Amino acid sequence: MKRDDMNRLSLKLALAWTSAAALVAFGMPAAYAQTGPLKAGVDGTFAPHAMPKMGGGVEGFNVDLLMEISKQLGRPVEIVAAQFSGLIPAMNAKTLDFVGAPTTVTPERAASLLFTEGYLNTYYQFVTASGKPDLKVPEDLKGKVISTNKGSAYDKWLTENAGKYGFTVEAYPTNTDAVQAVLSGRADATLGGNTVSAYAATRNPGKLQLSTLTVDQGLVWAAVFRKDDPELRNAVDGAIECLKKSGTIAQLHEKWFGTKPAAGSAAVTVFPGYGVPGMAGYDATAHEMKCK
User: Fold this and answer.
1) Prediction pTM value
2) Per-residue CA distances from 199 to 5, 38, 60, 62, 80 (Å)
3) Could you tell me how far CA 276 lies from the centroid of its own chain?
4) d(CA 17, CA 5)
5) Cβ-based neighbour number of residue 181 at 10 Å
6) Could you read off the pLDDT of 132-143 as tens digits, one per residue?
7) Mode of pairing for the β-strands spanning 189-193 and 113-115
8) Could you give the angle at which helices 248-257 and 61-73 cross, rounded to 10 degrees?
9) Inter-CA distances, 18 with 11, 29, 155, 235, Å
10) CB-based contact 38:78 (threshold 8 Å)
11) Strand, helix or coil at 22?
12) For site-directed labelling of 75, which of 18, 20, 166, 283 has its Cα 20 to 30 A away?
């Protein structure tokens, strides 16, 4: 190697180590005090959390949230949009570093994955075509076709309860496709998260309506990590805590959902430890918030 090349390499290494040392001093775990981008997966059709924008790319609540997390980490976050059903397999294959799409924390998922603390409460909301009879109780689903996003927690609930209540499930690659199935008459209703369902109804006035029937299991949405990557989980969890403390998540909630988060909700509550209390993978280790 030529002397000039060696000098340039030495300078690059020195800059990298200087940047890393600064982040470690700030409180960032050493393994993540790097300059390379982290790859975070989102469902790019899951409005208003991530959706196509004019000129290319995606926008939405979770896109903004990931950019704010990037600032707290002091490290770029590259957003990769794909179908939700493929995000966790891609992360487990190490194509993605983590999943930044809103993912419902369930005991089944927590057994094999790591989650940050919740940043939004989530319950299941049915949407029907405007003018159709309201769905008030689960028994009203009998004989109906219910669409949903394949691989989601809503897909799981529907599949587990189809026999009990006598409805048929049709799972689609994206939430947009599931909503379109109701608009086109291929499905009688669709099931999704409360924020997404409300957004679909407001974007289709006179065509879609929210049902009275909801399924609230006291669950939250969180970011997802491989079981063998607690250090990155903890770093992102810490960033989320800072964004709650500063009111940033509350501001994003109002920007994208049109309402302020409720007092005591996951959007404004900093939980102790790392992860979701009561779920597998929760780490109760006390820590100080180190926020930018």
Assistant:
1) 0.77
2) 55, 29, 12, 14, 22
3) 14
4) 18
5) 20
6) 999 999 999 999
7) unpaired
8) 160
9) 10, 15, 47, 19
10) yes
11) helix
12) 283
